[in-house]
Amino acid sequence: MHRLLSKTTQDHCQETTARNHRRSRTKFTEDQLNILIKAFNQTPYPGYATKQKLALEINTEESRIQIWFQNRRARHQVQKRLEPEKDLEASQDQDHPEEKIRGREDRRCRTSYTSSQLHILITAFTNNPYPGIDSREQLAKQIGVPESRVQIWFQNRRSRFHVQKKRDCDELLQQKQDQERNL
Q1: For residues 113 and 142, is the Cβ–Cβ distance under 8 A?
Q2: Staple 32 to which of 28, 51, 52, 154, CB 3.0 to 4.6 Å?
Q3: DSSP conformation class of 60
Q4: What pLDDT, in 10s, does the model give residues 68-117?
Q5: CA-to-CA distance for 40 and 31, rounded, in angstroms?
Q6: Taking the CB of residue 114, how many other CB atoms lie within 10 A of it?
Q7: Which tens digit of pLDDT belongs to each residue from 117-173?
Q8: Residue 131, CA distances (Å) to 8, 87, 113 in order
Q9: Rounded CA gap, 19 and 102, in Å?
Q10: Secondary structure of the chain: what % helix, strand, coil (to 5)?
């Protein structure tokens, strides 16, 4: 099969695979899942300290706990949408502690970046706004922050990029409309 592809196509496929390499799926044991499910049932939006304790308890990284909770909440929302009648009846007489707004003390401290760290991150973003796990780990090591913070920085940067792009398009459209009115 590889002989049929041109050299440039093979190079492109290898580059794309290397660039978009994802972290391997985290497989939790039944005991770990029981602990996580129990914690989720108590509070679907745990604070940073709770996620750290869970990570120590089940012997994994806090970032994996964070992702598990995000995925579990998403799955939970889908299930709620599939059974709206049951949920409506059951929820009319109950308080929902999971909807409580988290206080600042429950959050992770904001990560501050130096200008040199930002320069490295922005350069990397310009080259590839969707780096794979290998690239993120290399960047994390290079700038001295956890990989999970690099991942969040890229998510936030992509979001800002798309918002700015939309704003620029809206401004151009407005300018064009203004010019047409003035003619």
Answers
A1: no
A2: 28
A3: S
A4: 998 999 888 887 777 765 545 544 444 444 445 555 556 778 888 999 99
A5: 14
A6: 10
A7: 999 999 999 999 999 999 999 999 999 999 989 999 999 999 998 888 888 888 888
A8: 21, 40, 19
A9: 36
A10: 70, 0, 30
